[in-house]
Design brief:
heterotrimer; A alpha/beta (254); B alpha/beta (487); C alpha/beta (429); A: 254 residues; Rossmann fold; four-stranded antiparallel β-sheet; 12 strands; 28% strand; C: alpha/beta; 2 domains; twelve-stranded mixed β-sheet; ten-stranded mixed β-sheet; 8 helices; 22 strands; 38% strand; globular
């Protein structure tokens, strides 16, 4: 069975259609990348998969391991294995990251029929995973994302991903605002989490990230549709020529 | 100290009905409703009070009769029912009063049962947490533990009536010194008719060996509660006092008009923590307690320190302004408050910090949460008198609104009469962001848990001031009080 | 009916009576009656808790006589760039000292019976607003039609000038801007001698209109300046108002601002420097009645000698006024042991999606800043004056016309302790 199966997905916000029929299948163990210019619908796709209510899904289906995601609340989707690394992680004043994560980890474990992690087990896990992304453990005593630098926020997202052990990871422009060292650390964190039963959807504007997280398939999203899919070479071509030629080609084809 | 957050999570699952709304069936001896000099004489006689105290009461009563009930702010959505002072019964004592129990074994088992229901079995709690409990059941103290241990340290912790009998000189010296008997309408009423309360005396240089705790409960229908608490901390002493309230479910509004007086001498410190969870009325605003309390502390000595911490989740209406008069040089006053109003509840609370001495400092942190049709008001005064050179005040006043039918109001008064003083007031209003909830959802956390978590985070600075077991109870209460308020 | 005075006669009431026989009869009488009902306020009245009006209430006020402007005073107020100047003395227009009336401006006097006054805010409980209605003889009505703009600012100068009797006068300024209309209106209040003035400015802004407004108070030490500003705004309009006090005995500013249309913006600012016994009392009420409005209130006072300042402000957020963004700030710098400051920044909120903050600080000059400057070699007196000036500059910089800013800066520097150690360059700071 495919891990993620998106069929003819249409979504709109305030009556304006943003996704105009997305078809996308990700098999376990695969890394897919979605590229596209600003406003093409990349982030919308990520948010629709994870269930943000701002978007109205007007048509189509999204299945995770054969289960219909669109009927689920966002937290159910998360418990089923969807993880979204946010482009702009929100700050939650007063709530310590550690406490927040422990609540999340145990909600998901309960869903999977696992025992709650006790304080010791949790801290052990935290220590192990924080090392992966070279996250300063002191950050975890701070309120969620509050006062984190841009790079720290992104690393904290990847760290949370490691903690929650999702089956389908979506990275929404995780590379934006990162310098090259931070980018490498984040990418290493992701690569360590690649496994035969886990899928990745890496949304990015630039080819740069894909040098570190090598995708199996690259899709190009233009105006709410996937206009081209193929190997890594597409990304290089886009890097060279920009999106303009593709837009023209699509327009010509239409 | 941080509490284990999981304990809080466990309690979130509780049902939404008023958890502690039960009535204990103990026979009570109640004076018929009504208020006149005879009733006051009767109260005084029952308690075998000295003549001066009766005079003190009668004088307060005479003044009270000339005073008018404050026409205080009540916001829309509350059906204000006038208080009929003649319909209140001013004295009610469990029948076993004559034969006061000397230990827990002698306590009426029904009463202990009540504590069981509250989830605070007296003996266990006392033994486990090292907390001495002077339990006020309705108006008369019926059980006191750990007396000996406290006595060893020279600490006096007893019911107010007992103090009147056994330490009349102390009571006479300090009663009404911080809150004059005619301070305000409700303080005067309390002075006239108070039935009991707690008395604490910490001698010079003594650090009270345990946290002192009293559980108040309103139990008799139509019985006003008029406690009076007096805490005196002598030079260099320290005490932490916990006051917690739960009340049984009633349909009629009941009045609670307590008076608390604190006095801290040189280098003494008093920490006073409250959880107030009187019955708030039902979701339509029927019933609930009117909680009109006068609390004030006097930092008499140099370098003395008084700290008020409160978590107010109950009562239909709360008017309460725990205050500090910072008289001693370098003395410190603090006020940390969380007030949560849901349904038709209204809380009007805040503090007064009066800076008299040099280099006096005060810190005010107020967190108001309004949900449903609840209204939350911060009303505060910071006054720097001309002699208070280099005084400092910092006030932070944050409101959180949940839903569009509630209200949050902030009315601070800042009066500065010394140029070397520095006074800062900040306030903000927030709501819980949909993006915050979604972020939590995306990490597998339900919306309700997310709201509780965010609210607890919002109150963090205040909850951190509470002793540990109180903080656990406070978190649970906040979550419980907010159930079903998330749209 | 009579405003109570010591000798139980009331020249003011007589004057109101005689005015009522000429114009606005009913309205004047009603205002006078209300004024007598209210009486002169005492400190028991919460609105005047910090304001000692005893001397005012013990004065027998006379109607202000006709007079000519004092040339020297006028000269001092001749500020370049402030546009058409309309001069009033004791509430009456002085044509010779004034520029030609701009197209969009008319005098109120001939229209007293037709103009609807007091329709912007409810000042029923304010005795001075009542007096302003009862005594009004003239004023300026500025009406800018849809889409038009005043080509230059209008500068209204009011001088009080009397003999020995304490005199009372008022002036009414009515500003009505149509859709997307624009105007800049400046007021200066000056004059010496025992005087009570009750300035009243009413502003109504149509959709998308923009009004800059400044009121400059330059009175002598005997003047009671008990003014009010009322504004009412339709959607997407902007009102920028600033009250600047460099003179007077007691300066009270009552400002009511109602944001009635979505997306409206109001800024009410104030700066005052104290002197001797001067008391400055600001009482602001900003009502957010519609969604997505913004408001900014900032009042700052520099307080030397025995001067005092009180700031009472309320932000009211109506049910449904979501997206409200309101900020309220009160800052006081106490420069002597006898200066006092009171702040009451209040929020009353009935909507959940709002951003309201208020802040109040009172203290002396920041010792850290002082040390920093001294460590860089600046003498202490200069450093103090510089920091005090910087404190003022934040509000001064919001004054609409550059030359007015300079004029004001000079006025403030003339009163600022230690300012003689600063060089002229500080004015353009």
């Amino acid at each position: 069975m495919s891990l993620l199966e998106i069929k003819n997905l249409h979504a709109s916000v305030d009556g304006i259609e943003i996704l105009k029929g997305i078809n996308l299948t990700i098999e376990p163990g695969q890394v897919h990348s979605i590229m596209g210019p600003n406003g093409s619908g990349k982030s919308t796709l990520a948010r629709v998969i994870s269930g943000e209510e701002t978007y109205d899904v007007t048509e189509g289906s999204v299945l995770l391991g054969g289960k219909d995601l669109l009927d689920m609340d966002p937290e159910e989707r998360a418990r089923e294995g969807i993880f979204l690394a946010f482009q702009y992680p929100v700050e939650i004043p007063g709530v310590s990251t550690k406490y927040f994560l422990r609540t999340a980890v145990n909600s998901i474990r309960a869903h999977r029929g696992l025992d709650e992690l006790d304080a010791y087990g949790f801290l052990k896990l935290v220590k192990e995973k924080a090392a992966w992304v070279e996250l300063d453990p002191a950050l975890l005593d701070r309120p969620v994302n509050e006062g984190f630098s841009g790079g720290e926020k992104k690393r904290a997202e990847i760290f949370q991903m490691a903690m929650l052990e999702p089956t389908m990871c979506i990275l929404d422009e995780t590379d934006s605002g990162l310098d090259i060292d931070a980018l490498r650390i984040v990418a290493d964190g992701v690569n360590q989490q690649r496994s035969p039963d886990r899928g990745f959807l890496v949304i990015t504007h630039y080819q740069r990230l894909l040098e570190y997280i090598v995708p199996d398939v690259v899709h190009v999203l233009l105006d709410g549709r996937i206009v081209r899919s193929g190997g890594k070479e597409i990304a290089l071509e886009l890097e060279d020529k920009g999106y303009g030629w593709l837009e023209e080609e699509v327009a010509a084809g239409a | 100290m941080e509490t284990d957050p999981n304990t809080m999570l466990d309690q979130w699952a509780e049902d939404s009905e008023y958890k502690w709304g039960f009535v204990t069936d103990i026979e009570s001896e109640t004076v018929p409703p009504g208020l006149n000099e005879d009733v006051i004489r009767l109260i005084s006689a029952r308690k075998s009070e000295p003549e001066w105290l009766l005079e003190w009461r009668l004088d307060a009563f005479a003044k009270w009769q000339e005073m008018t009930e404050p026409p205080w702010a009540h916001w829309p959505d509350h059906d204000w029912r006038p208080i009929d002072y003649q319909a209140i019964s001013y004295f009610s004592a469990p029948k076993s009063d004559d034969d006061r129990p000397k230990s827990l074994d002698e306590v009426d088992p029904k009463l202990l049962e009540t504590y069981e229901k509250l989830g605070i079995p007296l003996e266990e709690r006392a033994a486990l947490a090292g907390v001495a409990v002077d339990a006020v059941f309705d108006s008369v103290s019926v059980a006191t533990t750990f007396r000996d241990k406290l006595a060893e340290a020279g600490v006096i912790f007893c019911s107010f009536s007992e103090a009147v009998q056994e330490h009349p000189e102390l009571v006479r010296k300090y009663l009404g010194k911080v809150v004059p008997r005619t301070d305000n309408f409700f303080a005067a009423l309390n002075a006239a008719v108070f039935t009991d309360g707690s008395f604490v005396y910490i001698p010079k240089g003594v650090r009270c060996p345990m946290e002192l705790s009293t559980y108040f409960r309103i139990n008799q229908m139509n019985t006003g509660q008029f406690e009076r608490t007096l805490i005196i901390a002598e030079e260099g002493s320290y005490v932490s006092y916990l006051e917690g309230c739960t009340a049984p479910q009633r349909d009629e509004n009941q009045l609670h008009a307590a008076v608390v007086e604190l006095i801290a001498m040189e280098d003494a410190e008093i920490k006073y923590s409250t959880i107030q969870n009187w019955y708030p009325g039902d979701e339509n605003g029927v019933g609930g307690i009117y909680n009109f309390v006068t609390k004030r502390g006097l930092c008499q000595g140099d370098r003395s320190h008084i700290s008020w911490t409160q978590v107010e989740t109950g009562s239909a209406m709360t008017w309460k302004y725990p205050s500090c008069v910072l008289k001693g040089d370098d003395s410190v006053g603090e006020f940390y408050s969380v007030a949560l109003t849901n349904n038709h509840q209204q809380a009007d609370t805040g503090t007064k910090m009066v800076h008299v001495g040099k280099r006096t400092r005060s810190n005010v942190v107020s967190k108001g949460i309004s949900a449903g049709k609840g209204h939350n008001t911060y009303r505060g005064l910071v006054k720097i008198l001309p002699g208070a050179a280099e005084a400092r005040n910092y006030t932070q006043c944050d409101s959180m609104l949940m839903g569009s039918a509630c209200g949050a109001h902030t009315f601070p008064v800042i009066e500065v009469e010394n140029p070397t003083a520095q006074v800062e007031h900040e306030a903000s209003t927030t709501k819980i962001g949909e993006d915050q909830i979604f972020y939590c959802n995306q990490r597998g956390i339900s919306s309700e848990d997310a709201v509780s978590m965010i609210v607890n985070g919002f109150c963090r600075e205040v909850l951190a001031e509470l002793p540990m077991e109180f903080a656990v109870e406070a978190r649970a209460l906040l979550a419980l009080s907010l159930e079903d308020s998330v749209g | 009916m009579c405003i109570k005075t010591l000798d139980n006669t009331c020249p003011l009431c007589d004057a109101i009576d005689s005015l009522a026989s000429q114009s606005m009869g009913e309205q004047r009488r009603a205002a006078c009656e209300r004024l007598n009902e209210l009486g002169w306020p005492t400190r028991k009245n919460d609105a005047f808790r910090y304001c000692n009006l005893k001397p005012l209430s013990e004065t027998s006020w006379h109607p202000a006589p006709s007079a000519s402007p004092d040339a020297a005073t006028l000269d001092a107020l001749n500020i370049a760039g402030t546009g058409a100047r309309l001069v009033f003395v004791n509430g009456r227009f002085d044509e010779t000292a004034s520029s030609t009336l701009p197209d969009q401006a008319r005098l109120l006097a001939p229209m007293l019976n037709e103009m609807e006054l007091d329709r912007v805010a409810d000042f029923t409980n304010d005795p001075f607003a009542q007096l302003a209605t009862a005594l009004v003889e003239d004023g300026v009505v500025i009406e800018v039609p849809d889409g038009q703009e005043l080509s230059e600012p209008i500068h209204i100068v009011h001088l009080s000038s009397g003999n020995d009797d304490p005199i009372a006068s008022t002036l009414r300024i009515v500003i009505r801007l149509g859709r997307n209309a624009k105007a800049c209106v400046l007021e200066t209040w000056a004059g010496d001698g025992p005087t009570l003035v009750t300035p009243m400015t009413e502003v109504e802004l149509g959709e998308g209109a923009h009004c800059d407004h400044a009121r400059l108070v330059e009175h002598g030490d005997d003047v009671w300046h008990m003014g009010a500003i009322a504004s009412k705004q339709a959607a997407d309009s902007t009102f920028e108002s600033v009250v600047l006090t460099v003179g007077g005995k007691t300066i009270r500013t009552l400002a009511h601002s109602s944001l009635d249309g979505e997306g409206a913006h109001a800024a009410v600012r104030g700066f005052g420097i104290g002197d001797d016994q001067r008391h400055m009392d600001s009482r602001l009420h900003v009502a957010h009645m519609a969604p997505n409005c913004t408001s900014r209130e900032i009042f700052k006072h520099l307080l030397p000698d025995h001067s005092t300042a009180a700031f009472t402000a309320r932000i009211y957020v109506n049910e449904g006024a979501h997206g409200t963004d309101a900020v309220q700030t009160s800052r006081n710098l106490l420069m002597s042991n006898t200066a006092k400051a009171w702040s009451r920044p209040e929020l009353e909120i009935y909507a959940d999606d709002v951003k309201c903050t208020h802040g109040a600080t009172t203290g002396e000059i920041d010792p850290g800043g002082l040390f920093y400057l001294r460590a860089r070699g600046v003498p202490e007196a200069t450093a103090r004056a510089l920091l005090a000036w910087a404190f003022a500059a934040e509000v001064i910089n919001e004054v609409p016309v550059a030359d007015l800013r300079t004029h004001l800066a000079r006025r403030i520097l003339a009163q600022l302790p230690g300012a003689e150690t600063l060089d002229e360059g500080v004015v353009s700071l």
